[in-house]
Each structure stands twice: as C-alpha cells, then as structure tokens.
Amino acid sequence: MGTLNALVAVCLTYVAMLFLVAFFAERSAMRGRGGWLRSPLVYTLSLSIYCTGWTFYGAVGYAARSGLEYLTIYIGPSLVMVGWWWIVRKLVRIGRTQRITSVADLISSRFGKSTLLAVCVTILAVISATPYIALQLQSVTLSFAVFAEAGGGGQTIYTGESTALWVAMGLSLFTVVFGTRNLDANERHHGVVMAIAVEAVVKLFALLAVGAFVVWGVSGGVSETFTRIDASQLGQWQMNGGRWAGLIMLSAAAFLCLPRMFQVLVVENDDEEHLRTASWAFPLYVMLMSLFVVPVAVVGLDLLPEGSNPDLFVLTVPLDQGREGLAMLSFLGGFSSATSMVIVAAIALSTMVSNHIVMPIFLRMTGGGATVSGDVRHVVLLSRRVSIIAVVMLGYIYYRLTGGGEALAAIGLVSFAGVAQVLPAMLGGIFWRGATRLGAMAGLSVGFIIWLYTLFLPSFGPGLILPEFVLQQGAFGIDWLRPRALFGIEGLDPLVHALLWSMTLNTVAFFGVSVMTFPSPLERLQGAQFVNVFQHSGGPRSWSGGVAQSEDLMIMAQRILGPAEARALFRREATRQGLRGDLPEPSPDFLENLERELSGSVGGATAHAMVGQIVGGMSVSVEDLMAVADETAQMMEYSNRLEAQSRELTRTARQLREVNQKLTRLSVQKDAFLSQISHELRTPMTSIRAFSEILRDSDELSADELNKYASIIHDEALRLTRLLDDLLDLSVLENGQVSLNLREGQLSALLDRSAAAAAASDDGRALRLSRDPSKEALMLHTDLDRLSQVFINLIANARKYCDAPDPLLEIRVTDHGDLLWVDFIDNGSGISDDAQDVIFEKFARVGEPRVGGAGLGLAISRQIMQRLGGEITYLRGENGAAFRVSLPRPAMAAQ
Amino acid sequence: MAKKVLLIEDEPNIIEAISFILSRDGWQVDTHSNGHDAAEVVRSKVPDVLILDVMLPGRSGYDILRDLRSGGGTEALPILMLTARGQSKDREMAEKYGANRFMTKPFSNSEVLEAVRDLVNA
Amino acid sequence: MSTPHDNSEGPRPTVFVERQTYRMRRTMDAARLVPLLGLLLFAVPLLWPTDPENALSTSKTILYVFGVWLMLILVTIRLSWVLRSLPPSDKAPDRGGER
C-alpha cells in the first residue's frame, strides 16, 4: 500500500515536473531564448516517442515469446535514419518549404491540395492510432496493477478503468495546454518537445538501469548472461524468415508514416542540420533501448513463476528482487513512454482532424468563408482542442470496449500495418512526378480495405466483428476471399500475409492508376515542387492578384494567425514589395506566402480554399500557367507560332511597303501628268490670250499683222482642241471604255487613206513613201478607223521628225501567218537609245524644236494596239526611226 | 538708249507675242529658244532684264537660273520666270533659286510689261 | 569518371571537380549506400538454419545483430561528420545526384 501511495506521489510529482519543463521551455522559446531547445540532441530525443509504452514493456514480452524478432521493430527505423539522405532529408525539406502540418497534409498537398485524400489519410490514421492509444493506456494501467498487487491489492480506486480514465484525462489536459498554445503547427511545440525529450531520457535510463541490474546484479556479468541466454528457451535462433524481413520493412514504413512520427520528424523539425545528428543518434538510442531486452526476458522467465505476464518483466523482475526503487524508475520509464506517445499522437491527429475534417466542414457550413464568419482562429483552436480530447477519449473507449488483454497486445503491429498503407503514396509522391491524385486514392483505398479485411477486423478475434464463417470460408463463401488466405494462398503468417497483399496491391493500384490517369495542373505543379524540392525551394505559384482585397486577406489572416502576427506578416510583405504602410499588393508572391503561412495553421487544402474564396476564384486556372511555364512542348509551339506570326508580319510589312512605294510612284506620275497637261493647255492659251489682247488694245495694226495674229489665235485654238481630243481619247482607251467598230477592209486601202490624211496636215515636210502593194493585198477584220489613227500618227511623226534631207518612209508589210507586221521605217537619224524607252509614255517628246502635238500620239497608238489585240514597238537596229505594228491573226480576215 | 530684254522661250507664238508687246513699249528684245547655251547667251548679251521660261528644250529654266545666280556677272540680273505648269512647287523653286519675279502662263500683256518695267527700275 | 583525354570542342562541365567537392559527392554516395548495406546485413539472418540441431545460439546472433547495428551507427557518425563541413550553399542541392 505504501508502495502504491509512493508510486502515486512520484507519478504526480513526475507529471508536475513535466508540466514545469514544458512551461519553461515554452516561455523561453517565446522570449527567443530557446536556443538550447533547438539542439540536435533534443530533436533526436523527441524522435524516441517511437519507443512507446508498448515497446518499453512489450519488447521484453515479445522477446520472451518470440526471441529476437522484437529487434525488427527497432531495426527498421534505424535503417531509415541511417539512410536519412534518401527519404527523411527530402521529407523534412518538403515539410519546411511547403509548411506541411501532418502526414495527411503532405499527401493532400502533393496531390493537388485534395481535401478528399486528406480526409482518407486522416481517417486511416485515426483508425490505426486509436487501438495504439488504447494500448498505451493499458500499459499504464497494467503497470499500476502490478504495484497494486505488490502492495496487497484490493484497492478499488486503482482499478484499470479508473486509472486509464485518469491517465487519459491528464494527458488530454497536458496536450491541450501545451499542444494548442500556438496555432501554427510549424511554430512547433517547444514545451511538448522538451517534455518528450526529458521523458526519452527517463525511459532510456530506466531501461538501462533495469538491464544493468539484470546483467550485473542478477546474472553476475556479461558472459554469465550469455550463458544464461543460450541455456534458456530462447537459446536458439528460431526465426520465421518472412516475419523477420516483413517486420523490418513494416517498422521502417510505419516510422515514416505514423502521424506522431511525422510530427516529430518533420513538423517539429527546427533545422535540417539536426538530421545529421539524429541519423546516428536515433539508431544508437533504439539500439540501447533494445540492448537488455533479451537478458531481462530470460531472467524474468527464469526467476518468475510460470504464467506471469512477460510484458511486465521490466517491472516485476526488480520487484521480485526487492528493488522497489528500481521498479519505480522502471515504472516511470514505462509511464514516460506511454504518455509521450499519447501526447504527440493526440497533437498530430488533432491537427489532421481539425485541418482536414472540421475546418472544411466549418467553412462549407459558414458558406461565405473566413471574411464573413466569426473568428476563425478561435474556431481552429477550439476544433483542435476538442479533437485532442476526442482522440484520447476514443483510445480510452476502445480500451474499455475491448477490455484490454492479449488481443490488444497484438494490435501494435496491426496498427503499424494500417498506417504503412500511406507509404506508397508518400514515397511515390516525393520521388515520382507521375504519381496522381487518383492513383494515390486508389492505392490508399485498396490498401486500406485489404488491411481492414485481412488484419484489422480479424484481429478482434473470430465472431466479434467478422463472423466465424467468413474467416473459415471467405466472404460470401468465396474461398479465395478468406481473410487469412487471400487468393487461396495458405500457410503464411497472418501479419506477413496481410502486409504482403495490402502493400503489393496498394502499390500496384497506386502505380497503375497513376500511369493511366492524367494529373490536374495543380497536381503537376505540386508534384514538381515536391519531387524537385532540392532544386527549387519555392512554393507553388497559383494565385493571381489584382482582385483580391488586401483588407479581406488581412481580416482573414488576423483570424487565423492572430492580430499581431498577421500584421507583422503583412507589414513584412509590404516592405518587401517596397510599399509603405501595412497592406501589401495582393501579388501572386504575397498570396503564395500568405497561403503557405495559413497552411501552417489550417493545412494546405483549407488555406488554399480560404485564399481562393477571397481572391474570388482568380486562381490562375493553373492550366494557363502550366501551358506556358511547365510544358516545354507548348512553349516551343508557342514560340513557333510567334515566329510564324512575326514572319507573317514581316511579309505584310514588306507588301505594305511595296504598295506604298507603288502609290508614291503613281502619285508622282499623276503629279507629273497633271503638270504636263497644265503645261500643254497653258501654252496655247498663253498665245491666244496675248494675241487677242494685242488685237484688242492696238489700233495701228497692219492688215498683214491682223491676219497673222488672227491665224495664230486660230491655230492655237485648234491645237487646244486637238489636245483635248487626244486626252479624251487616251482616257477612254485607258479606261477600256472604248467600243471597237469591227469592219472588213483592205490593208492597202487603209494605208492609202492614212497617208493622205497625214499629208493633209500642214506641219511637217514633204515625205516620200516607199510601199510594196503586192504585200499589202490583205483583208483585215478589225476597227479600221482606230488602226488608221495609229498609221496616221506614225506617218505624221515621220513627217515631223525625220531629219533626213530627203525624207523617205518605208512601209514594209510582213505576213507571218498568225501575225501581221506593218513596219514604218524612215531614213532619219532615229531615236536615241534612252529616248526609246519613253516614247510611248504620255507627253513624251523627242527632238526639238517641237512642232505641234502634245506628245500623246504614240501613247494613244499603244493603247489602241492593245485594244486591237496587237502591239506597237520600236524596232532597234534600223537606220532611221522604225516602228512595228503587229496585228494578231483574228484581225486578219479569212482569205 | 533702249533697255535690253532677253527672252528665252521655245514657243514661237509666245516669243512673237512678248517681242511685240515689249518692242512697242520701246524695249530692245533679243530672243533665244533653247536651253543648252542659254546661260552663255545671257552672259554675252548682258541684258537689262531676262525673261526665262521654265520648260526649255535642252536644259531646264531652273538649271539656267541657278547657273546665272552662281556667278559670271549675272548674280544681280533681274529675272522674270515664266512657267506653264502653274503649281506652287514651281513658284517655290523659282524663289529658292533667286528669280526676281514669277509668272504663270497665261498672263496678260500689261502684267508682263509692268513686271519688266519694275524689274529695271527697282 | 571520364577520361581526361576526351577533348571534345565547346564548353562542357568540368570533368574534375575540386578535390573537396569530389570528396563531398562521394560521401553523399556513401550516405546513400549505408542503408542498403544495412538492409543486406540484416537480411543475412534469413539464411541461418532454424532446425534445432544446427541453429545458432542466441548469444551469437545477438552479437551479430548488435555488431552490425553498431557498425552502421559508427559509419553514419563518420559520414555525418564529413557532411557537416558542407558549405551552406552547397548543402541543399547537389543536382547531379538528387534523384
């Protein structure tokens, strides 16, 4: 009785001490003096919550039953830590850069901030953690019972149920006080971690003390101990190979996936550097924890009566030897193991439950989101506190319902197998960019269902949840669905069997579905962020600013982070943006940072949703972002398109330039033309005006003069008329408005008429014509008047411009069958080479002085010939000026 | 002694008209009808006033004008430019190259007469 | 390692990194290898006979398992000691081997 009272006193003192440690640690951390709190040693010791009450007591029992198999539980995590460079380092980096709050948050964030996935992982974690918490309560209760028995028993106050209840309540209180002091999980629970570190030292010391006592105190030395071991029933290597390998794997997986381990390993990690120490210190710790397990088990089996519970050898051996103090220490060790596990598990699970189940539901129920509802900060805190109590109480209820005992002892590994189902999604998520949300869902679901069916439900024993016949014959009587022999493969150890199938099918489903499905843009972005966390440690970029109201964001952030921190954050951001005042622009950078800060408090998916509500769906539909940023192919395509567009532009610009040049040329030509017309009109008008004024103003003009001046006026008037006629003619021809008057006629007759008409004009000199009438006997079918106009012009030109002393014009006709040539060649000096190019242009005139004519004759002739389907060209290489008129066959009438 | 006017123009009827008007007013009128050697003719004849057409066979009136203004004793010679093209550009060109007066055909006889008188008296 | 007489034109990554960086890279390789080695050594007990006549005594197996354990711990201590001297900039990304 005295022992028991002393025990209770020690226990309470110990708990009070823990409260104090946590309190002071918390306080010095708040004052920024907590440097020593963030040492690698503390970090390593906090990892020791892996060694729970179950391992503290149970390891010995395990060894007593199954020999060295218990080592697998420690070897797995040791290997993980020794191989920290592979996985743990990456997890910690991801956790820090993405402000991950829990294992559920990790999976959810990785797979596109999926709330559904987070909920699944949370449920899985709660289901598998509840029995484990129950186990801790049981271990404390049992150890109490040991002392109660030793002290004479019969004390009703210390019955199992009440002990468990008291312990559960105490733990809830501690966790609520120190676990929800800071809302932001990433600000770390220094008090809790410190208390855990102290407990870690206590439990190691206790176990080492008991071990040392057993080895040197009871057995009398190391070699004697070995002899004793070899002589005992555990003296030979009796190992189920499948279990040995399977359990190493399982414990390694659980080490990474257990919510409480993730909490201390990743979330509470202050500095990546600490991993370096923990990489060897943690294996050392668990090695020491397991060092004396076998000796204690062997001695316990030797000394204690048959049938005593080997799980309690750590207590009962010292008690049996009358070492109550040692037993007390051992009890404290066990107590420490159990309580630290429950505390951290409660924190981790409550974070998950609160962030991934309560908050989303709350947000949905309040509809409008954080801006209109009440103080979210309080809601989050409250939900987390309630979650802590609920989680611990769930463990208690479970303990009460199952009644403890052997069934519970086996639940530890079952629980491990449950959380291990997260492993494929976790490792796939951080190492394989191809992992998709649906793949993770599929893997988790398959693994979870198989685990439930083959391990968890059968663990309650036949008939409790799964009916007897299902165990014997399989569900629905289908033989290959037997929970202990899926697909008809029998003879495997149930645990190994369940592990094999659940993990295999889990991985296959995860991989298969991932390969077959296409991830959403956000998933791909997050995937890249996670997998390549060492390349770029920036967060996902998914908000575009502009619409988001900084005030709203401020209000929301205040509610979650608390006013002081929110203001500090906003001011920091504003300063970073180079703004004065407290409100930064809602730039993508800022939103991203804010979201990350918030996710530390309420989880990635919730933070994303909250910011999303305020930003008003202005999420950069990440598709756009991805299309441009992530997909090199699309980048290439885009740039190619740009290139094509730019080529197109260049082409258009060139065309425009050409058109412009043409227009300019045309404009210049038009100016020149107008200027020419002006000149041609004004010149005769000048003469007319001058002479008419002379006639008007002068009285003493002679009759000759009068006659002469009147003739000049007359001639110039005629010249004007001709010019206007020509211009009209040309205009009509050029516009294609001319209607041809097609008739039949003899070429020779046409030439006769033309020569006569040309000769009738006054200007020019006498001109002899040289013709060959035999060749001219051709019938034409064309517009004879127009053709005659061309001939007249050519003959008149020869009259005007032929500078030979005896002007002679040869008209040479050549019939080429489909083409008729009529050449006009004079015996003058011809037209200079450079002038030949322009003679057919309007107002082009060659030679000087000018003799009448406006220089439109050849231009008109060319137009006419075009209308008639032929052409007029200048013949080079003749002696004089030579023009060729070509007529096409249709212009020649059938003979 | 009668003042000398040199008329450089290629249109015979216009030469006749201007010669008539000016000689009736007591001027001694010389004419020349192509652009090639116009500048030399001007320098050799040393007229009191020069009437210069723009559109000349052989050389543009502007060229001749520039030539005359560039030296050889004709820098200050009063020059009346005649053109039948009647665009503002022509007037600008004439002013730029230093013509004293500029007239667009058709002109009235009295205008020409007055212009020539002004140019000599100025 | 690449051979030094591979003188292809154009700029390319240096074949030989600084001695210290090289040492660091190899230490990282070793850090990656340790858990695999541990896995291998801890798998050895699977080969041990389990029939009662030839079975190993528990004391021997304890010595083996804890020996391996201790060896792993010592190797890891050594490696983490070397990795400590990573300059801060070099610490996070070692792009080449980060997979």
UniProtKB/TrEMBL annotation, chain A:
Reactions the enzyme catalyzes: ATP + protein L-histidine = ADP + protein N-phospho-L-histidine
Official protein name in the record: histidine kinase
Domain Histidine kinase: 676-891
Localization (cell): Membrane
SMART domains: HATPase_c (SM00387), HisKA (SM00388)
Cellular-component GO terms for this entry: membrane
GO MF entry, a single one: transmembrane transporter activity
Lineage of producing organism: Bacteria, Pseudomonadati, Pseudomonadota, Alphaproteobacteria, Rhodobacterales
InterPro entries for the chain: HATPase_C_sf, HATPase_dom, His_kinase_dom, HisK_dim/P_dom, HisK_dim/P_sf, Na/Glc_symporter_sf, Na/solute_symporter, Sensor_HK_Regulatory
One Pfam match: HisKA
Organism encoding this protein: Primorskyibacter sedentarius
Keywords recorded for this protein, A-Z: Coiled coil, Kinase, Membrane, Phosphoprotein, Transferase, Transmembrane, Transmembrane helix, Two-component regulatory system
The UniProt record lists the keyword Cell cycle: no
Coiled-coil features, chain-numbered ranges: 628-669
Automatic annotation (TrEMBL), chain B:
Domain Response regulatory span(s) in chain numbering: 4-120
GO molecular function: DNA binding
SUPFAM superfamilies hit by this protein: CheY-like (SSF52172)
Modification type 4-aspartylphosphate: residues: 53
Superkingdom of origin organism: Bacteria
Any single GO BP term: phosphorelay signal transduction system
Keyword terms of this UniProt record: DNA-binding, Phosphoprotein, Transcription, Transcription regulation, Two-component regulatory system
Pfam families assigned to the protein according to its UniProt record, in alphabetical order: Response_reg
Keyword hit for Manganese: no
Glycosyltransferase listed as a keyword: no
Name of this chain's protein: Response regulator receiver domain-containing protein
Upper classification of the organism: Bacteria, Pseudomonadati, Pseudomonadota, Alphaproteobacteria, Rhodobacterales
UniProtKB/TrEMBL annotation, chain C:
Keyword check for Transmembrane helix: yes
Keywords assigned: Membrane, Transmembrane, Transmembrane helix
Protein name listed in UniProt: Uncharacterized protein
Transmembrane segments: 30-49, 61-81
